[in-house]
Amino acid sequence: MDEILELTAGVVRTSRTMNDGRTIRYYDTAGQARTAKDQRPEEDQPGIGELRLDPLVNEWVAMAAHRQGRIFLPPKELCPLCPTTGELLTEIPESDFEVVVFDNRSPSLRPPAGDFALPDLVGADTDEGVAAGKCEVICFTADHGGSFKVLSRQRVRTLLEAWRDRTAELSALPYIAHIAPFENRGEEIGVTLAHPHGQIYAYSYLPPRVAKMLEVARAHHQKTGHVLFDDVVARELRDQVRIIARNEHWIAYTPYASRYPFEIHVTPLVPVADLTELAPAACDSFPAIAIEVMQRLDGVFGIDMAYIAAWHQAPVREGRDLLRLHWQITSVRRAPGKLKYLAGSESAMGAFIMDMKPEQSAQQLKDVKI
Fold first, then answer.
1. Number of separate helices (H) and strands (E) present in the chain
2. Which fold has domain 210-367?
3. Angle at 134 between CA 29 and CA 346, to 5 degrees
4. Which long-range contacts (CB under 8 A, 24 or more apart) does 214-222 make?
5. Contact 197/140 with Cβ under 8 angstroms?
6. What is the pLDDT at residue 93?
7. CA-to-CA distance for 343 and 322, rounded, in angstroms?
8. What percentage of the chain carries pLDDT values higher than 90?
9. Is 197 one of the annotated active-site residues of the chain?
10. How many whole angstroms separate alpha carbon 42 and alpha carbon 67?
11. What region, left, alpha or beta, does residue 319 occupy, with left being phi > 0 and alpha being psi -120 to 50 degrees?
């Protein structure tokens, strides 16, 4: 049965069930009626994977062997993220769409059956768990040849509303600890589908980087009484040199200790824990700075830059007074035809080494003519 929900900014969500039981959600602004049926044959969903602990660093690793056979860089005429047209039956039954979110066909994480709890940590003898969580795909546009930088401001606002809606709904699930919407672009960083899209991973545990950020933020707060991220933003505002864009509600900058040739953080000037807490004015002003940042990134070398754009937000049930919402965009492109490879020091030791200062990349980004 369809579920229709009115969100903010004139966005309406229509949720429908696909033939294999997954849910698809349309986010619309023009009063569209979503009635197209999934015409593909029913198929079984993959089972839930394993969650194993790496006891050397106390980090969870999800085992999802069923993903090995997922589709890889199909031609446009076979793209599963395009609208359904003629004999091309895709993940989206409708012949057109604005923004759409659906449950991943090959998820790394799946909802658990019954009650769920992470196994107790007891080193090498830690029990195996199940890879509980949720993985969703979010398509930004029906246009296969598009990209984030060419989206209209209205479309980016709709996309933001979808991110906010998914964060709110996923946060209500008892087995979810952290939610991370992100976009991968470019074969250089492993994209398997060229259609403009992102993903939303909802974890049953805190990912290592989030856990580390929370640990450091707690220590800083205990020592100073300040929120660490607020102090970081205050330094960027004071230094000015690494700021590449700003408006009344947002600031974009290359961080003082960047790890990548081009790394941009975009954060609201009024700090919030997650996407759901953004004020209406901040939501409405996000599209302008988001599009500008992406245009500046692609304008540095006049080519489409491979990047990962990930929302960092506070966990669902802890650290909400210590971690702040921000959007991190990182690119491994250091020059035309040259990438920064994460080799020995970075991959093996986790010790990043930068060949250029963030002030240099900030200047290159600021010099781009929009």
1. 6, 17
2. HIT family, subunit A (3.30.428)
3. 105
4. 214/315, 214/318, 214/319, 214/322, 214/323, 217/319, 217/322, 217/323, 218/319, 218/322, 221/322
5. yes
6. 98
7. 32
8. 86
9. yes
10. 19
11. left
Question: Residue 1: is its pLDDT beyond 70?
Answer: no
Q: Please state, in angstroms and rounded to a whole number, the distance separating the CA atoms of residues 229 and 237.
A: 12
Specify the CATH number for 3-205; select among 3.30.428.10, 3.40.190.10, 1.10.3720.10, 1.20.1090.10. Answer: 3.30.428.10
Query: Which band of pLDDT confidence, cut at 50, 70 and 90, is reported for residue 122?
Result: very high
The CB density around residue 215, as the number of other CB atoms within 10 Å, is 13
Q: Are 102 and 137 in contact (CB under 8 A)?
A: yes
What is the identity of the amino acid at 232?
Answer: V
Looking at residue 99, its amino acid is V
What is the DSSP secondary-structure string of 188-239?
A: GGT-S--SSEEEEEEESS--HHHHHHHHHHHHHHHHHSS-HHHHHHHHHHHH
What does the DSSP 8-state code read for residue 261?
A: S
Please tell me whether residue 27 adopts helix, strand or coil conformation.
strand
Mean pLDDT in residue range 255-284: 98
pLDDT at residue 190 in the model: 81
Q: What is residue 42's DSSP assignment?
A: P
Q: What is the CA radius of gyration of the chain?
A: 21
pLDDT surpasses 90 at 262: yes
- The DSSP letter of residue 346 is I
Distance CA 157, CA 331 (A): 24
Catalytic-role residue among 144, 178, 195, 197: 197
Q: Matching CATH topology for 3-205 and 210-367?
A: yes
The one-letter code for the residue type at 67 is R
Which pLDDT does position 43 carry in this prediction? 85
Domain extents in the chain: 3-205, 210-367
**Separation between Cα atoms, residue 288 and residue 282, nearest integer Å:** 11
CA separation for the pair 84, 97 (Å, rounded): 10
Give the pLDDT of residue 70. Answer: 64
